[in-house]
Design a protein that fits this description.
Strand content: 25-35%
Structural class: alpha/beta
Order of helices and strands: EHEHEHEHEEEEHHE
Strand order of the largest sheet: 7-6-2-1-3-4-8
Radius of gyration: 17 Å
Distance between the termini: 25 Å
Number of strands: 9
Shape: globular
Largest sheet: 7 strands, mixed
């Protein structure tokens, strides 16, 4: 069994080294959609894999970082990156080129990392993100699953602009910039009604 949560936003990028000149030589934007699929080995006390409102709280907040954001690749030209950072308030410098495929992979990896840093308190099982579908446009998407993580680089460090991080809760900020392995997202304890 799995559940799906859809997120929408607007973003911009350049995808270097691709075949299309428009994509590899010009900044361009997309109305993207991100589908997150979650699975578990059991249902919680409410008969759910996980409550959708909890997904919006932590995962949704991080995914919102991509909205109205310029996506940069850390291997791109330093002069280009500095110019973008100088004139753009919201940007992320990613460890991967911001193709739909790489974004689906990276988001799937990060959603699983957020789930591991979450304390569930309503009888949830082993909740994980089984796949992400990144719709770059209304006609094209990329799909990434757990078994695709071997395609990611080993160093997944990301740099976020202040314009992105100032929208985050303290929990998300601490999770991104502090020691891994700690539970940063503490879901509320639920009293059973019957």
């Amino acid at each position: 069994m799995q559940i799906r949560k859809l997120f929408k936003g607007e973003g911009a990028h350049i995808v270097r080294n691709c075949s299309t000149n428009r994509c590899k030589k010009s900044i361009h934007g997309h109305s993207f959609q991100i589908e997150i699929f979650l699975t578990s080995d059991k249902l919680d006390n409410g008969g759910m894999i996980v409550d959708f409102s909890l997904i919006k709280k932590s995962i949704g907040q991080w995914i919102d970082s991509f909205d109205h954001c310029m996506l940069l690749w850390r291997n791109d030209n330093p002069e280009y990156k500095e110019d973008v950072k100088k004139w753009c308030d919201r940007w992320m410098e990613l460890p991967v080129s911001p193709s739909a495929e790489n974004l689906a992979l990276y988001i799937c990896f990060m959603v699983n990392k957020i789930l591991k840093a979450t304390e569930f308190n309503n009888g949830e099982g082993n909740v994980r993100c089984s796949k992400v579908i990144y719709h770059e446009t209304s006609t094209g998407y990329a799909e990434a699953e757990l078994t695709d993580f071997y395609l990611l680089p080993t160093d997944l460090s990301t740099t976020y602009s202040q314009g992105v991080t100032e929208d985050w809760s303290a929990d998300l900020y601490e999770f991104i910039f502090n020691i891994p392995g700690i539970k940063y997202f503490i879901n509320p304890k639920v009293e059973k009604q019957c």
